[in-house]
Amino acid sequence: MKKTILIVGLGLIGGSVAVSLRKSPNLHVIGYDINEKNTDVALELNIIQEGTLDPKNTSERADIILFATPVNATLNWLDLIKDWPLKKDVIITDTGSTKTLIMEKACELRKLGITFIGGHPMAGSHKSGISAAKPYLFENAYYLLTPLESEEEATIQRLKEILSYTKAKLLTVSAASHDQMTAVVSHFPHIVAASLVNQLKEESTQNQTTKMLAAGGFRDLTRIASSNPKLWRDITMQNRIQILAQLTSWQKEMAKVKEVLETGNTDEIEMFFSDAKEYRDQLPSTKGALFSTYDLSIDVPDYPGSIAEITAYFAEEQISITNIRIIETREDVYGILVVSFQNEEDREKAASCIKRRTQYDVYIR
Ligand SMILES: NC(=O)C1=CN([C@@H]2O[C@H](COP(=O)(O)OP(=O)(O)OC[C@H]3O[C@@H](n4cnc5c(N)ncnc54)[C@H](O)[C@@H]3O)[C@@H](O)[C@H]2O)C=CC1
Ligand SMILES: O=C(O)C(=O)Cc1ccc(O)cc1
Description:
Blueprint: E1 3-8, H1 12-21, E2 27-32, H2 36-44, E3 50-51, H3 55-58, E4 64-67, H4 71-80, E5 91-94, H5 100-111, E6 115-121, E7 142-146, H6 153-163, E8 169-172, H7 175-204, H8 209-212, H9 216-222, H10 229-238, H11 240-263, H12 266-281, E9 294-301, H13 306-316, E10 323-327, E11 334-341, H14 344-357, E12 362-363
Parallel strand pairs: 1-2, 1-4, 2-3, 4-5, 5-6, 7-8
Antiparallel strand pairs: 6-7, 9-11, 9-12, 10-11
Helix pairs in contact: 4-5, 7-11
């Protein structure tokens, strides 16, 4: 039987969930956004089947309601739905990057007989809005679920069946553990990235040339500093206890680095880098918050036209690319062309295409 899903918040994440669920013939996807234009765009792009201006009244038809709104807005919605004409067995869920406060609301809802299971797809982008939505965004990424401890297994299973269309790897964790882990791999790194960029800005008031030198490494490390500030304001404030704990660990680590630099201990500083390299090199390459693209690196001679040559091969073999950039180019040496793809299959096709048609070395960094 066809299930109806109401998605509130049609931005990058709501739009991407909607378009991945649209693949199922058994789902009817209705969308609502506070900004009516986003609903219109979602309809035009065929991301949703139906738009609504009245989520409260529409909720009586919904089997699943998913909030993909900024996390503070989600807290407000979870108060409002207490008066909605909900179906008896509706499952409410969300996609928010924080979980502790949201699951406190779930406890209140449970007392009213309303089921809420927290959710958080661990893939995304620094981009926002419906126009950045992609059907493959969550493919192979972890999608964390935070049901209440007392939640019935069959209910969790019902939600998992719907979310399986995202092709994400669904994993159940507690809200507390969620907020601790995401502080480490996502929230605190966003603070570090923003602070590095702010440091460059400050430095550039003295010397304008510095920012011209901000090359591959700096750009890779700080991409997420281009994320939506209001979204990150809400995430940071909701998870500030865990983020503060990470900040304290970081300060301890920096104090050690400072001491090593002050004493000029060469071996210690090498160990600092080699410990990090060893751990970084064996991180699982699965898609996660900070590893959300399928990149292929191609060594190309640094001459104008090499990008055109490679993109022409991809076009001929109908391999879609999502991003392309050159890094570490210097005169007289090879540059590295980094091409991003939507999924592993496209990346494999691209690697085989380049190996067949050129002499260039290709590799996955
Ligand atoms: N950006 C990312 O990479 C990821 C974000 N998330 C979480 O998913 C949620 C959505 O994030 P994005 O899609 O990136 O943001 P977005 O800014 O792309 O989209 C949010 C959408 O919600 C709408 N909206 C704002 N307030 C609303 C309200 N009160 N009622 C209805 N609609 C409202 C906005 O108009 C916008 O269309 C957030 O909770 C975020 O923490 C989760 C995983 C990744
Ligand atoms: O752009 C990136 O790499 C991200 O970090 C995206 C992201 C943002 C918020 C999340 O809760 C999860 C993933």
